[in-house]
Amino acid sequence: YWAEKAGVTEAKAYATQPTTSGGHASRKLRAALGHVACTDLYEADAPGHSKHDLERTTHVVSFLPLHEQIAKSLKDTPSSLTKLAELKATGDLPRAYVEHPVVCGNPDEPVIPIAMFMDAVPYSHTDSVLGCWGLNILTDERFVFGVVRKRNLRRCGCKGWCTYNIVFQLAAWSFEALAKNEWPSERHTGDTWLPSDTKRASMAGQPLAHI
Fold first, then answer.
1. Which of 52, 83, 105, 136 is most open to solvent, judged by the fewest CB atoms within 10 Å of its CB?
2. HEC profile for 24-81?
3. How far apart are CA 88 and CA 84, in angstroms?
4. How many Å apart are CA 116 and CA 164, to the nearest integer?
5. Is the pTM of this model over 0.70?
6. Is residue 141 within 8 Å of 113, Cβ to Cβ?
7. How many CB atoms within 10 Å of residue 211?
8. Dihedrals φ, ψ of 97, to 5°?
9. Is the separation of the CB atoms in 94 and 69 below 8 Å?
10. Beta-carbon contacts of residue 138 (< 8 Å; ≥ 6 apart)
């Protein structure tokens, strides 16, 4: 606000009165940055804990499936295929890739190497989230596909693994879709699609990435 008053024209889009409420300021910032609500989120039930509940509870956690992000990336930026072709031509590919079952099972198809990693990311002095990423080894492009709050982890003696298991199920579901190059025909649990999955249901069984 004061920067804009001082003549910094670039600050005008973000300026709000110093007395503006936090909610209004947040909406102003999102609008200025061009952030809009994501309609592609995938909702999954995760067992967890809540300080307001005496018993175990279930949280609805939103994810952005890894296979969907990678399919979009390959469509928008085909540089991965160029890089892979160059490495194949020079023979500069590790045994872990060359001998991988998916690569061996698809000798005439380009198979993009994808890694997964997880790490804790603090966002306050009292809590953190577990971030889950996929990584395109060829381009170093990262895809965050899930975030789980530490304070919501299940506390039944499992040390949070009941909650983490949902993340691993979703990761396995995505990697299977990528290995088959096919949109999943059912949810990560093996259940039929929910009403909120109409778009995904319409894509079931179709090629995931047209490459």
1. 52
2. HHHHHHHHHHCCCCCCCCEEEEEEECCCCCCCCEEEEEEECCHHHHHHHHHHHCCHHH
3. 6
4. 14
5. yes
6. no
7. 14
8. -85, -50
9. no
10. 80, 83, 84, 87, 112, 113
The rounded distance, in Å, linking the Cα atoms of 180 and 106 is 10
Task: Express each pLDDT in 45-61 by its tens digit.
Answer: 888 877 666 667 888 88
Report residue 104 CA to chain centroid gap. 27
Report whether 71 contacts 77 (CB < 8 A). Answer: no
CA distance linking residue 117 with residue 142, whole number of Å: 10
Q: Angle 79-90/66-76 helices, nearest 10 degrees? A: 80
Cα-only R_g, the chain: 21
Contact 126, 203 (CB under 8 A): no
Query: CA–CA separation, 70 vs 138, rounded Å?
Result: 12
DSSP string, 96-124: HHHT-HHHHH-TTS----EEEEEEEEE-S
**Length of the chain counted residue by residue:** 211
Please calculate the CA angle 176-182-186 and round it to the nearest 5 degrees.
Answer: 70
Q: Residue 128 carries which side chain, given as an amino acid letter? A: S
